[in-house]
Amino acid sequence: MANARTAVLVLPVAWVAIGLVGMLFGPLAINPAFESLPLLILGGLAAADIRMPALATGSLALLLGAFEGYNFGSAYSAARDGFPALTGSAGLVFVLIAFVSAAVLKAKWNWTRIAMRVVGSWTAASGILLLGWGLR
Questions:
Q1: pTM of the model
Q2: Alpha-carbon distance 63 to 59, whole Å?
Q3: Closest by alpha carbon to 16, among 88, 81, 79, 80?
Q4: Quick one: which of 45, 38, 40 has its CA closest to 3?
């Protein structure tokens, strides 16, 4: 329960805060292969069914929010309505994380845990695909 609360609170705040930094400084010249890291890490952790302390979950949420927030903020820097778009995307992330957390917390049967692990493995597989495209 503490992990879900931590992720729901930290991820959108980091998304908006670092997104504003991205709006100020614009895009960075980094390898596109790095964009696959959040999918690889989070998908791999879900597929492995690893139980983590709330501090580790908060740290991952902070890193994901910072990474994706900067990417979104730098993309919105050229748009005239960058700040509303940035806060709207963070709001969508908040709602999505809240719904997924609620679904996982209510999962009582063994098959639901297996289903979450399958979703995690497909997420990690998508990250591997993005990594391959980025390294190409």
A1: 0.80
A2: 6
A3: 88
A4: 45
